[in-house]
Write a structure and sequence with these properties.
Length: 556
């Protein structure tokens, strides 16, 4: 395998397009979420108004952090219940041309949790399990509203920084509606049309039965795939319509489709950095966060490419588009909390697979999910400012808000909850017979399979090594619980922090104020992220991908 100048050009093109579109989309979203009604916004405003009228939402009514969090949890709970029931009765409902059966309770539980938490972990193969109605009304709807929930939490936290001496953080229902109608829906429609033009299927036909040249019958799946592919990429969801996700030619048929889907992986999450800067009144703050994320992703990408081209093979790679595109996708999907894949992660070199795993373990803050990456990295920002304040003996401040013990307590809960879940879940699974029964490999690779599964669940990523059999009561429940902890034990602390900050005064900057919009702070932030992520999991990584890499060198 040879890394060529054309590979470099493709990488540059993807990152350049994201960089150029970030401020454009960020500015547009700022207008959306500040209630401006001009230009393109007028097109979607009637739909927004209709939703308010039907649901009885008062657009101008605001909530404190407890009311906002309560509304968010209730909405997600009912979404979970509806989706779980839908899966368990799908055989009795329309739009099921292949007469697919009902799902078991534990698979329905796992899938409902997965899509509600924006994880999109899939313990099933879509074309063999889900009816068209379940795909659209259940999974497709959650692709929109789970991403919109991430937007809403980020907006509430931004208001906590920008407002002073109040308890109002906005209205969850308004933020949810605007995210969906003005951002996610129009972009998804646009991308759907483009993908259909590239050959991604979008129909309600029965599966096609054909004979191969060997005379063997082959079943070619159909379905409304393009619409779900668009929102799975844009909303950092990642759940494939077909079992092999974006490695399937009906999901990702051409180089242009592959290029657009990769851009969509991180586009909205990247634009959230610029949006945040505008919301708090400082573009530089947003640019520093964008620069930190982009720099970390480029370094991670470089390490993964070096490992794959040095020690990898063609097994499991995207042969249509080249090895580089598989590696780039793996880094971007684990950076963006997306989880979609166009190759087999289990077949990558040990270090490349380990890097993808570590990317998730950093907290999904290198762009991360839509909205979720921003409020995730802001926990690390608060922690970094607090540590710097301790070193200079000064009360730490961020954006004029003093950081005190109660905020740090919530930050620690938000940062450590996923870490503990990953380590405890993995440890139990390698000692319990039910956990060991799913292993596809023995030795360090087997440990990596389990470790990656819980990292993906608790990190709300959704990708998998692919060689671990997880459609069992044990793994469906265990990973389902990990996904719930990884989502809501971060959201609740973030909302509590927003509720605390919004009540405080904004202190004017002084000579002793630590600058958080500088290159120095970006370096410190990256260091804290790496220390917390890397050192927390280093012992386990040493027994998995690192040991497997060393064994590969010995055998070589």
């Amino acid at each position: 395998m040879t890394f060529t100048s054309f590979d470099i050009l493709q990488i540059f093109a993807v990152l350049a397009v994201v960089t150029v579109l970030t401020p454009i989309l960020g500015q547009y979203m700022f207008k959306v979420f500040t209630g401006q009604n001009s230009g393109l916004l007028r097109v979607f405003r009637p739909l927004e108004k209709i939703i308010y009228f039907v649901s009885g939402v008062q657009e101008t009514e605001e909530m404190n952090w407890k009311q906002y969090t309560k509304a968010l949890l209730i909405f997600n709970f009912f979404g979970f219940v509806f989706l779980m029931i839908l899966q368990m009765v799908q055989s009795h409902l329309p739009l099921n041309p292949e007469h697919l059966g009902d799902l078991s309770w534990h698979l329905a539980f796992n899938t409902a949790v997965s899509f509600v938490t924006n994880t999109n972990w899939q313990a099933y193969s879509g074309e063999n399990t889900m009816s068209y109605l379940t795909q659209m009304l259940g999974l497709g709807v959650q692709n929109f509203v789970s991403a919109a929930t991430g937007f809403a939490v980020m907006l509430a936290l931004a208001r906590g920084f920008s407002r002073k001496q109040t308890s109002e953080l906005g209205n969850f229902w308004v933020d949810l509606t605007r995210s969906t109608t003005h951002v996610l829906l129009p972009l998804s429609i646009l991308l759907t049309v483009i993908l259909m033009g590239q050959g991604v299927v979008q129909n309600f036909s029965s599966y096609t039965h054909v004979k191969t040249i060997e005379g063997v019958e082959q079943i070619i799946p159909q379905g409304p795939a393009a619409s779900q592919i668009a929102i799975k990429q844009l909303g950092s969801n990642g759940g494939g319509f077909f079992g092999v996700n974006s490695a399937h030619p009906f999901e990702n048929p051409t180089p242009l489709a592959n290029f657009l889907e990769m851009i969509s992986l991180i586009l909205l999450a990247s634009a959230c950095t610029y949006l945040f800067g505008l919301l708090v009144g400082s573009r530089r703050q947003g640019l520093v966060l964008f620069g930190t994320m982009m720099a970390m992703m480029v370094v991670i990408l470089g390490l993964s490419l070096w490992s794959e081209y040095s020690f990898g093979t063609m097994e499991g790679k995207e042969t249509r588009f080249g090895v580089m595109n598989t590696v780039l996708w793996s880094v971007m999907t684990t950076s963006a909390s997306n989880g979609s894949v166009n190759g087999m992660l289990s077949s990558m070199s040990p270090l490349s697979g380990g890097i993808a795993m570590l990317n998730i373990m950093l907290g999904e803050v290198v762009f991360g999910g839509v909205g979720a990456g921003m409020y995730g990295i802001l926990l690390y920002v608060i922690l970094t400012v607090f540590l710097c304040g301790l070193m200079v003996g000064r009360t730490p401040e961020y954006l004029g808000k003093k950081i005190e013990a109660k905020e740090i307590t919530w930050v620690i809960i938000g940062v450590l909850a996923p870490c503990i879940t990953i380590l405890v879940g993995s440890a139990l699974s390698i000692v319990l017979p039910a956990g060991l029964a799913g292993l596809g490999h023995q030795g360090p690779h087997g440990l990596s399979e389990v470790f990656y599964a819980f990292a993906s669940g608790a990190g709300n990523n959704g990708s998998a090594f692919g060689s671990l059999s997880v459609n069992s009561a044990y793994y469906n429940v265990a990973i389902g619980v990990a996904m719930l902890i990884g989502r809501f034990l971060i959201i609740i602390p973030v909302m509590a922090i927003a509720g605390s900050f919004v009540q405080k005064k904004i202190a004017p900057p002084s000579v002793g104020t630590f600058q958080t919009d500088s290159v120095l702070f970006a370096g410190l932030l990256a260091a804290v992220i790496l220390i917390v992520g890397a050192l927390t999991f280093f012992p386990a990584l040493s027994l998995g991908p690192i040991l497997e890499h060393l064994l590969l060198l010995v055998k070589g």
